[in-house]
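Database export, one record per block. Field names are fixed; values are copied verbatim from the stored entry.
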Amino acid sequence: MSSDHRATPYIQKKKVRAEPPFSNRILRLLDQRRYEIPGWGFVVCRLWRIESGSPRGVSIVFAVELCGLGNRRLCTVGDDGARARRIFDLLVEHTVTPFGLRDVLEEL
């Protein structure tokens, strides 16, 4: 190969994912309670309403968040507001830890 012929390195182009023309999320805090796990510390339980908008319409889902004891967990609990409120009340009543949130929701 002569010095005039140089190998052109292969350059991989990055694929850019286009965002939809209109997309947003609105989080609304519906309730928040703080409780103590004796001997461990405090946990804050929050109930969120999440609205996602797009050209196809608006979807609403509810989520619970547990923060404390060095952990934070956020899990969606469906689109039924009354059921989400009952789950939130049960989590607070039984002082669930952030680490145990997913296990408790699976049982429900």
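Remark 1: The radius of gyration is 23 Å.
Remark 2: Residues 81-93 form the longest helix (13 residues).
End of record.
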